Amino acid sequence: MWLLLRRHYGLFGGILGIHLLLFVLLGLNIHFKSREDDGGLQVSPDAPLEVIEAVVVDGRTFDRVEEQQRQAEQRARAEAERQRQEALRREQEERQRQAEAERRRQEQARQAEEQRRAEEQRRVEETRRQEEARRQEAERQRRAEEQRKVEEQRRAEEQRKAEEQRRAEEQRRAEEQRRAEEQRKAEEQRRAEEARQQRLAEERAAEERRRQEAAAAEQRRLQAEETARRQAAIRQDQQNAYVAAIRGAVESRWIRSSDHQPGYRAVVFIRQAPGGYLHEVRVEQCTGDRAFCESVERAVRGAEPLPSPPSPDIFAREIRFTFEPA
Fold first, then answer.
1. Is 292 part of a structural domain of the chain?
2. How many CA atoms lie within 13 A of 25 on its CB side?
3. Residue pLDDT, tens place only, 60-92
4. Helix (H) or strand (E) holding 78
5. Could you tell me if residue 47 is inside a domain?
6. Cβ–Cβ under 8 Å, residues 275 and 206
7. Does residue 105 fall inside a structural domain?
8. With 0-12 CB in 10 A as exposed, 13-18 as middle and 19+ as buried, what is 241?
9. H or E segment at 272?
């Protein structure tokens, strides 16, 4: 209802004005009648009353006017929509035309750029071929010069070897003469030495008996010490193998970083429980960067459970080893 009133407020105002005017005229007529009665005029009760006709606009007329105005507004809106669609179509055609022009411009620019690049590539290729030809010529000259120097060195080496061979032959003859003389003297010394050795052999036999008795006692002592050393060495080898197995398990799970430098090393301390389960992992010394130290600790934890020892008595709760990847 209010929407209808806002839309046709002019028509409604006109109708409302007509009704107000009729009410005013009706009031004036009653007022005039009252003044005539006050002037001495007597109105008979049976006298007929004057009837004033009012103009009333019925609802169908109002609806017809509203319908006409609504149709006019619809036609106006339809015309406005048509004009807007036409403007949009023209605008779209203009954009398409501009886009086509821009596409052609870009295509021309692309072709020009491709042609420029092809020309530049041709120049670069030509420069490269010329440079390669110069390099090959320089390489040929260098190899020829090296071949000449090698040939000169070969001839000089042959001359040097021939001279050395001649000197070696002279030295060989002199050495053979010297050895023959030394052999004669050595033979004489040998005979004298044999006589001296015969005397000494008897003395050594007696001394040997004494030494054998002392050596037997010493041998027994040494055998006992050797047995102890072997057992200690076996235990040490087992411990070393056990630590090496742990180190190998850590190395198999260590991931080399891209910035790893040769020479990085870390001293690792671990505390474990039976079965190889870790209680504590600590990098005590590290010559690498922080990423390397952290990667070593992650590798140790990734190797859990650690390898078992070769024998139960080799197991150690605390182990310290050096991790130094190749």
1. yes
2. 11
3. 776 788 888 889 999 999 999 999 999 999 999
4. helix 59-253
5. no
6. no
7. no
8. middle
9. strand 266-273
pLDDT tens per residue across span 171-227: 999 899 899 899 999 899 899 888 898 998 888 888 888 988 888 888 888 988 888
Please name which of 299, 290, 309 lies closest in space to residue 268, comparing C-alpha atoms. 299
- The residue that leads in pLDDT, 112 or 271, is 271
Give the whole-angstrom CA distance, residue 169 versus residue 164. Answer: 8
Q: How many domains does the chain have?
A: 1
CATH number at residue 298: 3.30.1150.10
Q: Which residues pair with 267 in a beta bridge?
A: 285, 322
**Are the CB atoms for 271 and 290 separated by under 8 Å?**
no
Which domain, by its residues, includes 307?
Answer: 254-323
Residue 67 is assigned to a structural domain of this protein: no
Select the more confidently predicted residue: 49 or 93: 93
Residue 311 has which token pair? 């024998």
Closest-CA residue to 247 (of 235, 222, 224, 265): 265
